[in-house]
């Protein structure tokens, strides 16, 4: 969970995920939207006391909302064993199948397509 300046720095780097996709209660999302807060970044850049006043909730509820949104935008942890895999999956099932599991790790790989496409 991010606090103070660390929260603001992290929020500036993250994408603009819609609060509708952050598993918040509908009335919280609606209250935030009425106040021009639509994305995780919008929310995480706000002061806790301001949010408490806007939402008319307890400080504990604000903390829970911030935690839920922070967790929804934070990248999933990756184990070292996954990084050291022999193949790096592309997450494209057909391509991974054609490559026998993904791109080989530990080597330089160039992926190209037909000329003029893309």
Automatic annotation (TrEMBL):
Transmembrane segments: none annotated. Pfam families: HHH_XRCC3_RpoA (PF26169). GO terms for biological process: double-strand break repair via homologous recombination. InterPro entries: HHH_XRCC3_RAD51B, P-loop_NTPase, RAD51B. Its main location: nucleus. GO terms for cellular component: Rad51B-Rad51C-Rad51D-XRCC2 complex; replication fork. One of its GO terms (molecular function) is double-stranded DNA binding. Keywords: DNA damage, DNA recombination, DNA-binding, Nucleus. Signal peptide: none annotated. Residues 19-72 form the XRCC3/RAD51 homolog 2 helix-hairpin-helix domain. It is found in: Nucleus. This is XRCC3/RAD51 homolog 2 helix-hairpin-helix domain-containing protein. The lineage of its organism: Eukaryota, Discoba, Euglenozoa, Euglenida, Spirocuta.
